Amino acid sequence: GLVETGSGRQIPVFLTSVEVADLLKVTARTVENWRLEGRGPRYIRLAREGVGRVVYNLRDVEEWVARHAVG
User: Fold this and answer.
1) pTM of the predicted model, to two decimals?
2) Is 21 within 8 Å of 31 (Cβ atoms)?
3) If pLDDT is split at 50, 70 and 90, which confidence band does 2 have?
4) What is the DSSP string of 9-57?
5) N or C: which end of the chain has fewer CB within 10 A?
6) Which residues are CB-neighbours of 47 under 8 A, at least 6 positions away?
7) DSSP label at residue 69
8) Around Cβ 17, how many Cβ atoms within 10 Å?
């Protein structure tokens, strides 16, 4: 969930809905539906006046997948 910069600082990796969908082998629409239904990974809305881009912290996606693992 973190990447190291050239200066040695670790910063979080953020993914778009499409990137999360690619990672999980589902459609972007599925990821959007999960978000709207409150069933998907935690997300961050980078909003200005209520309209904005949604991104996902890779660590949150990884934790969400781990919680849904069976077995």
Assistant:
1) 0.82
2) yes
3) low
4) -EEE-EE-HHHHHHHHTS-HHHHHHHHHHT-S---EEEEETTEEEEEEE
5) C
6) 53
7) -
8) 21
